[in-house]
Amino acid sequence: MRKTQITIDVELDENHIPELITWNAQDGGVEKEETKATMISVWDEKAMEALRIDLWTKEMPVDQMKMFIHQILVSLGNTYQRATGEEDVAQWIEQMAEEFAIKSAIKM
């Protein structure tokens, strides 16, 4: 069996707030790539719940966080459609993402 690794390194300030986030992906050729935010979700089958790690640096601008969340919502619709084949629900998620974009003022 082949293994690969994706890692995220977080440098914290004295108050334990992220100042620098970098990530590495062996197979993707990514090494110490800086990012301002990351959201990771994993499925806990025993507890039947999603576990999350949401991190962002103090320098992450609010307007970029809104765009980040919008793009995550769009990708959730795409992932849902690929995983379930339920096009109607995927379209609903995409519509919700567009409503979010309008309400958060990143789209008019």
TrEMBL record:
InterPro entries: Motility-assoc_prot_GldC. Pfam families: GldC-like. It comes from the Bacteria. NCBIfam families: GldC. This is Gliding motility protein GldC. It comes from Chryseobacterium paridis.
